[in-house]
Amino acid sequence: MTVTRYHPVLVALHWLLAIMIGFQLGFGYFTIGKLANSDPAKLQPLSLHMGLGTAIIVLMAIRLITRYFTSHPDPSASQRQGVGRLRTPIHRLLYLVIFVTALSGWFTGFLIAHLYETPGNTLPADFAQYPSRVIHVWMALVLLLLIVLHICAAIKEMTMGDVQILGRVGFGKRKD
Question: How wide is the angle at C-alpha 136 spanned by C-alphas 53 and 61, nearest 5°?
């Protein structure tokens, strides 16, 4: 079946994950990153960050499963030539980086989970002692760059492509 839009579950997950990931990147940098590890108040926002990261892992898994079992629009002519051919590998890389970012954060949380057992505990002076944390930070930066690339590609398609790209990730009738 030829469809002009993605499945409504994929559309909802796309936008929900976009908001959650954007929030997580900003919250991680501007809130958690600015609090000293010695500040006991850091544990609460860090818990929220870890909980949302876990939710992102689950929602991304649901998204991939749904994507596998549903029809999606064929690539447009501009998406099958030139730079447009990078669409599939870039999306796969985006998914991979989201998973690696979230899982490395989850694993770091697993390593420090014992600190939450006793009230008043503080975090280690430096998270750099955990390789998973170093991976998490670098992958977050790569993710930010991929998101910018993703947005630029969408703008390019909207202005120079031959499809209404945002219509594909919007709600509405799926067939012409």
Answer: 40
Write out the two tokens for 89: 């590998």
Q: Report how far residue 23's alpha carbon sits from residue 133's, in angstroms, rounded to the nearest whole number.
A: 19
CB 2 within 8 A of CB 166: no
Domain boundaries along the sequence of the chain: 8-168
Give this prediction's pTM.
0.89
Contact 37, 124 (CB under 8 A): yes
Q: Is the pLDDT of residue 121 over 80?
A: no
Report pLDDT digits (tens) over 32-67: 999 998 888 888 899 999 999 999 999 999 999 999
Question: How many CB atoms are located within 10 Å of the residue 101 CB?
Answer: 27
